[in-house]
Every structure is written in C-alpha cells, then in structure tokens.
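Convert to structure. Protein one:
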Amino acid sequence: MVLTYDAYNETLEIQKEKEDRLTIIEKQFNTMQSQIQSLLSSLGSIQDQNQVNQMAKTLYDSKILQTSSQSLKSDDDKL
C-alpha cells in the first residue's frame, strides 16, 4: 500500500501523539508509584494508634481509601 504525502504525515502525527500520551501516562504512573511508596513508608513508621486512625480517616475522606464493600461495588460498576 502506497500512502500519499499528506496521509503519511498524518500517520506520523497520529503516532507522535500516541507516543506523547504514553510518555505522559508513564510519568504520571511513576509519580503515583513514588507517592504510594512514600505513603506506605510513612504508615509503616507510625507507632501511635491515634495517628493511624487519623491517617485512615484522612485517606477515607479524600476517597483514596475505600471500605472493601465500596471497592467491590466500584469494581462491579466497571464491568
């Protein structure tokens, strides 16, 4: 199959856009992974149960943490 010059350029642009989006997603993933590692490290070092409870409440209120029934329901909604 032979592409015209315009079709070839359009194909290159589409490929470049896909690669750019993938790069952005990879950067976001790496950032999130780093944040999760920091959070887990912080949680692991908390000795006071009141601090653990406060952290859990903060995570729950921010919708980062869900109860297991909420998590199962949201997984069902995705199907």
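Protein two, convert as well:
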Amino acid sequence: MSISSLKDLGYQQAGTGDSLDAQGEYALAHIAGFPEDIPNEAKEMLYDGYRLRHGERHPAKVYAVVNDHYILATPEQIKNAKVEKIEIGVAYAFAYSSQEFGKLKNTNPALHGIIKTIRDDVGDYCSNRLGDLKRACKRILDKRNGRAVSRTTLDFTESMTKIFDAQTKSVKVKEAKRDTTANSAKYALAVKAFWTTYNK
C-alpha cells in the first residue's frame, strides 16, 4: 500500500470503512445469528479467507534442511539441487491436522517450531479480522435499530489501567512467541513502579 499524503490517507481509510460496512451487510444477510453467534461452518469459511489473505501478505519461505536444522535458504542453496529444501508458508502450516501438528513436536521439533509461529500469527490475524467484522455488524445493527453508539470517557487513571491490562496480555503472548524483547516479569515490575511513583 502506498500513501502519498494525509489527504490520501483519509481517502483510503474512508474507502476501507465503506468496504467493511458492505462486508458487514453481507455477513448479516448470510450468517444466521451473526454477530452474536456464528455457526462453525461459517466461521471456518471466513477463516479460510483470512488465511488466504494472510498468505498473500506473507509469502512462503524456502528453508534449507541442514543436519536436521531449518535455516532460510540462500540463493546458492536454492539453486543447488543437492541441498534438501522445503517451502513453508500458511498453506503448508495448516495442511497439518491438530493431531498431526501435535505429534510433530516430538518427531521434528525444529519444524514444529517454525510451523507453530506461523499458526499462532495466523490465528491472531484471523481472530482480529473476525472481531473487526463483528464490530462492523454491531454498528450496522445499532444504526438500524436507532441506537446511538455511546462512548465512555475514562479518566487518566482508568485509561492507564486499561492500557497496562492490555499490554500485560500482549507481553505474555510475545513472550510465548520467543520475542526476546518481551519479559512479563520485568513488565509487571515496571507497572508496579509506575503506580508507586504516580500515587505518591
């Protein structure tokens, strides 16, 4: 995506909003009970689409298998027919059933680690996109029913508490994904130090 100015950003954002509204209308017309409920079949079809989109944005990568280790293949390794290679992306990661994926942790932990990262990232992406669609549908329904969308104004303490709570979840997720910059214990101490100083 290319954005040339704030005016262009506004135009593109408005277009995104219009598209989401149209998508919300379609969802309401074709998914019984949505957004409060969603049949498993409908959810899986949506997730198929979300995974397809994620795969387009994050193309598969070629790994070279060296001594049972998976490393991103260099151009030379890609050209070398003698080097064992494997292309891993969203489609490959989700070709494994849950049971097959679980077994992989014991039979091929290196491959399991790569696939787990992809599956976790895609899972978060799908969940977020479904959340976007549900919120769009709720806005549409509120408008149809003449309900005004109320906004709760938080004071500073409430705002900071909300931010810290959200980041507490985030740091744990990133820590689980082996983000070396994430440390839930240090984060908890930092939050405690903030409130200790602020409440003096």
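The first helix runs from residue 6 to 30. The mean pLDDT is 90.
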